[in-house]
Amino acid sequence: MNEIELKIKELTELKSATETALNEMKASIEGQVETKSAIDNLDSSIKELSTKLASIEKQIEVKESERCLYEQAEKILNSAEFKSAVKDVMSKKRQSSGIFEVKIATSDVTFPVARTNTAVGVYGAQPFANLFLGNAGSPFIIPEGKNRASWLEGSYTSNVGYVDELTAISTADAGSMTEKTREMAKIAAKMPYSSEMVEDASIALNWFRTKAQQYILNKVDSEIFAGDGDDTTAPKHIYGLKVSGSTAFNATTAGLNGKIDGANVVDVITACKTQMKISSKDQFMANAIFMHPTTAALIKSEKNTQNDAVRRFQDGVVLLPSGQLQIDGLPVYETTKVGVAELLVSDTMTWQLHQKRALELEVERVASTDSFVLYLRWRGNFVVPANDKLGNIYVADIATAKAALETA
Question: Which of 12, 24, 92, 176 has the greatest number of beta carbons closer than 10 A?
């Protein structure tokens, strides 16, 4: 028997005892001398008992309403009215029984957490995909005891030519080689959290840790394109493609200055490929295009000369079923890390990612505050040797590049 039923039983017994006392008092009145004062006193006692009885009945009614649905239904089934109705139906005195209702609304229950179903996973903002890291290939690992990326850059001058019979060669070929080095950049982040997070909210803590790892690698990815590393002012920053690893677009080098009617973005990309081919003497071959999603959308929505909404296949523009854009067979990587006005056409085989320390996670215990601190670090740098910069053509302003190609 639960607490509510015990309370109801207690109140019911109290009601019965009060009714008994009231009846006895009335009987006592009948056997006494009917003096006015006695009657007044007895009437006052009766009213007091009647008030208590009404209060008890009200408490019983409230407690009855707190019964669960099962208990309410059980009470109806055991009631005299319900049994009488069933008996009438069974004896064929009437065709149907009466209606007995139990009404309980959701406002009558107070356990919202227990009735909540949580979807699997945590939903939150994501950083843009690491498209530059993804195209950089496997990193060069800096071994123990070393702290710089190192590579050799050479130059060679050929003086090959004709020579007469019995005549000494008067001009010789010449060559030189220089060792280049680059210091390691360190990128770090930290995230303090309490012991209560570990004990009470592990799902949140695990999500925060994952986000911290994503964002530190996302920082590395962003710096591969736009890092401001410099031998003089920032030797321990990442040397980005935009500043230190590419060649500026030049329509004259491509031989297309002022030679294209109605020049557009696709023409600029074609000119970049041509510049790469000519300047590198066909040493490098473009295999990726990086642009802002808005630039890609403009290319996708461009119409043909009949103003039909079709792709200009004659210009080498193809939209794959996956939604990825291809131009002259090159995949287009869309990222907001490249500005709307910018464009990069690359041979990613020229990229070198040097890594001293892969993403490192370390947890420090802070006993004084009963907490922890998660530290994340990455050490490495990015290299494009001097000659290999010809394999990366950077367009700082697409509008300016189109103007340079446009027929005068």
Answer: 12
